[in-house]
Amino acid sequence: MNKSPIKVLLVEDDGLLSVKMAHVLEANHYAIDRAIDGQAGLDFAAAVDYDLILLDVQIPKLDGIKLCRQLRSQGYRKPILLLTGNDSDSDADAVAGFDAGADDCISKPFAAEVLLARIRTLLRRSNTLLASANILTWGNLCLDLDSGRITFGESVIPLTATEYNLLELLLRNPDRIFSRSAILDRLWGFDNAPSDRAINTHIKDIRKKLKAGGLTVEIIETVYGMGYRLKPRPQSAPSGANYSDTEGATKQQSPARERSAIDKVFQRFRGVFNQQVAVLEQAKTALMAGNLTAELQQDAKREAHKLAGSLASFGYPEGSKLGRTAEHLLIKNTPFTSEEITQFSELVTALQQELASPPVTSAPARFPTFLSHRVLVVDDDPALTERLKVEAEAWGLRVKIAPNISAARSRIAVSMPDVILLDLTFPETEEDGLTLLRELTERSPNLPVIVFTARDSLADRLAVSRLGAKQFLHKPATTEQIFQAISRVLPKTQALQGKVLIVDDDSAVLAHLSALLTPWGLEVITLSEPERFWEMLLTTSPDLAILDLEMPLFSGLELCQVVRQDMQWGDLPVLVVTAHTDADSIDRAFTAGADDFITKPVLGPELVTRVLTRIDRTRWRSVR
Fold first, then answer.
1. How far apart are CA 398 and CA 182, in angstroms?
2. For the residues of 462-511, what is the DSSP string, one character each?
3. String of b and e for 115-124 (b: at least 16 CB within 10 Å)?
4. Which of 163, 245, 306, 426 has the fewest CB atoms within 10 Å, measured from its CB?
């Protein structure tokens, strides 16, 4: 039985050597991430729990010795293997590396067999120290990491390698929900993963085999719209029990665990938001006392910038506005006037009150998962990027995060995404997002890039336009607006799903609905003149019609009745769009022959799901 891949981070700026080493390691079943400089290596190590780090000494931005020392100071305890040169300074590098916390070093050039032997030795030594963690359990279910055996009592559960790795992932992270895209990233990586539907099959097979092995209670929980996680472990049970008695207790706990994805991410970052506001509170106190330092002002400006960019996505649109106003006040270098000090003080108080109140809730976006496009988000706001990762699966997207320009370059060097969402401002570094946009334009001019930033000057917009970005999206924006922007620029590679005729006298509504449907492989025909409906119907032969209820000259219900009276077009699926949700309006829509109705304002996920479902159902009936 194979264990889950050992994760190795390779930090090497020599592109040819990096590729060769990656090929050798991947051929020996190691999972590899590559970084091209020290700062990117530090970012990767902060985001992923690597089993071993291969670290070149001479790398840009943060050399290997400093990076090793910083990793150890931040609590990284896994093996670090230094790669040194063969010059006269190699011995000094090795000594400095050992002093910084490296476990071993190897001089270039080296044979692949020697490198692999050094890695095996370090991993074996590390595993010996972690031997107590080599058995994962859930009640009497045991997963032995050394033997690769899974047992329940005396029964051996025969899982495939992929099923084993998936169960191990859940057992190692009992309180975490894994979306399908997160599982794909963990077990297969960014480039060679199967479709997300394969995850459903693997989960189903694991459940079936566990049940056949005697475990009658379901241990893998499906969290609707979010993914999978391990159910709470039994508190105690006699040896050999099959835990059927614990099922009731598990079910009793489930309502409290059925929070939305948005709420879970917000709960995770609530403390971060409070800390950010606390920095603003410190700046407020210092400002009122007349001793605001440049350093504190810069810190407060950075935190206000992050609050402005992310609070709206968590149901606090007013909080984003307050954060943006506070950021603009803190940008100034001249002394603050008494009016500005009073205004800033009121903004901080208002922010505190806003976060103490419940968020403005809305239905979470739920799109069918027909796409599997790869999106790289280059943004330093962890709350926003985590929210995007959680919701990406519902839009059929797989998201990777780069917290700065350096990490983005490393990600792109390893794997080119299908679209990039790029912020322009990174307070922690001197580099500007326009620098990366310029590099991407020269290297991959056809790669869609969406600039997503709080900067909104004409100069920025002109620069972004000249560098070839597909869209300019201003912060703050809701996640639905962000994903809609991504959908509009994605390459249209899937087969045509069908043809839709939309009739509405409002051209803005036509453009909006067309933008929502086109990325899903639908050919959209729009018509703003309802009097030309029949002509357009005969000319285009759509698979479905969307009709506005209220239009001049002809209402959508009248057009629907015309369709139903025709022998050829009588079975055409018709969706009516209406702002009225009263029983009488709904009854009139169905009486006129509408198959379904959609209320205004139209939610993209609802529209896409209903349109595709109606088209598929009609085609299925036609071939019976």
1. 8
2. HHHHHTT-SEEEESS--HHHHHHHHHHHS---SPP-EEEEEE-S-HHHHH
3. beebbeebbe
4. 245
Peptide bond into 109 cis (omega under 30): yes
Asked whether the beta carbons of 423 and 433 are under 8 A apart, the reply is yes
Q: Give the number of other Cβ atoms within 10 Å of residue 378's Cβ.
A: 28
Task: For residue range 470-489, list pLDDT tens digits in order.
Answer: 889 888 888 888 988 888 88
Tokens of 522: 């639908």
Burial 561-591 (b: 16+ CB within 10 A, else e): ebbeeeeebeebbbbbbbeeeeeebbebbee
In whole angstroms, what is the distance from residue 522 CA to residue 519 CA? 7
Written as six digits, the tokens of 150 are 């899974």
State how far the Cα of 351 lies from the Cα of 489, in Å rounded to an integer: 35
- Provide CB contacts within 8 A for 447, sequence distance 6+: 416, 417, 419, 420, 440
Q: What's the Cα-to-Cα distance from 478 to each of 280, 355, 418, 520, rounded to whole Å?
A: 24, 17, 21, 21
Place of tokens 């800390």: 275
Q: Which of 106-115, 213-222, 246-255 has the lowest mean pLDDT?
A: 246-255
Cis peptide before 448 (omega within 30 of 0): no
Q: Which amino acid is at 137?
A: T
d(CA 268, CA 383): 9
Q: How many CB atoms lie within 10 A of CB 86?
A: 10
What digits encode the pLDDT tens for the residues 38-97?
A: 888 888 887 777 889 999 998 988 889 999 988 887 777 789 999 987 654 566 777 888
Going through 124-272 in order, the beta strands assigned E by DSSP cover 135-138, 141-144, 150-152, 155-156, 220-223, 227-230
**In this structure, what token pair is assigned to residue 192?**
């060679």
Which tokens belong to 201?
Answer: 């099959």
Chain centroid to Cα 13, Å, comes to 27
d(CA 78, CA 200): 33
SS3 for 109?
Answer: coil
Angle value at C-alpha 87, between 81 and 88, nearest 5 degrees: 105
Whole-number Å distance between alpha carbons of 96 and 100 = 6
pTM over 0.85: no
Q: Vertex 355, ends 351 and 357: CA angle to 5°?
A: 120
**Token pair for 182:** 């997160």
Residues 6 or more apart whose CB falls under 8 angstroms from that of 382 comprise 269, 272, 403
Quick one: how far is CA 75 from the chain centroid?
26
Burial 510-531 (b: 16+ CB within 10 A, else e): bebbeebbebbbbebbbbeebe
- DSSP assignment of 81-103 equals EEEE-SSTTHHHHHHHHHHHT-S
Of the CA atoms within 13 Å of residue 399, those in its CB half-sphere come to 25
**Three-class secondary structure assignment of 398-440:** EEEEECCHHHHHHHHHHCCCCEEEECCCCCCCCCCHHHHHHHH
Length of the chain: 624
